[in-house]
Amino acid sequence: MRLIDTHSHIHDAEFDAGRDAAIARAREAGVAIILALGVDAANSRLAVALAERHECVLAAVGVHPHDAAVATDADLDALEQMAPHARVAVVGEIGLDFYRNLSPRDRQIVVLRRQLETARRVGKPIAVHAREAHEEMLPLLTAWSREMGGRLPDGRPLGVMHYFSEDAALARAYVELGFVISIHTSVTHPKATQLAEVARAIALEHLVIETDSPYGAPQKYRGKRNEPAYVAEAAAKIAELKGITIETVAEATTHNAERLLGIALSGGERGVHGASGIRGAGVPPAHDAGLQLADRGAGFQPANSVAPAAGRSRP
Ligand SMILES: [Zn+2]
Questions:
Q1: Domains of the chain (ranges plus CATH)?
Q2: How far does the centroid of ligand 1 lie from the alpha carbon of residue 37, in Å?
Q3: E-assigned strands of 62-167?
Q4: What is the Cα Rg of the chain in Å?
Q5: Beta bridge mates, 208
């Protein structure tokens, strides 16, 4: 069984203690790829640096809506320079959060629009955070989807609705626009009835799974730090809800995530690490990416020295 965790903050400070062990546990649990999502420029650099060190990690670069207020134009320029990087698969985590309102709404919208433009320019999908903001998000993404022709230029989905927390009708609306829906490990919580209904109602071909680790551990590990290995809990719950096997869920969600991320995992890849694991579609193995990075010169610096984003509790 192979799984892909389409949303993790494995590069964050919360994993400084035991990050490599957490990645090893994920590999043992069948997680072939972990997508590490940046929330600001410095944090995105950490995600890219981790993706360069680990074959099974890919990066997303972006400014989270919580951080929109403090993101400078220089930060957004820096992200635009990072976005074409070979180990960057996604522009994210981007979006609107009118629940916590940690940044002014108009600034969130400006920063989101700017990053939609970045994604269009580099032809990569987006990872969308939307909380109590769908009245603005749906028209924004409808317009963007129209501009994009409903797909990326290479035919892939436009992005993923991360930690989806609305009803099935809205999930369908985003699917129609060209997005996949991500089912979070909290689907295992007894009170997550709406998310369970989304997992049941939306066809498997439109679903991916995620942990959003370290946040939102599944029921079995509640109160603990969530980690990519636990993404299997989401797969198991979807299988139960749909009355199918976990293997079927794993196969389909992994296939969907591969398409989203623009990768193909070779069939023989099972607990094997190294370059043979990933091929095709413009995502070279980590060491090649490192070479390419060196060639890029001053445009981008893998910043080991950059402090992680301030410990602002998410999501
Ligand atoms: Zn996140």
A1: 3-299 (3.20.20.140)
A2: 6
A3: 88-97, 126-131, 159-161
A4: 18
A5: 182
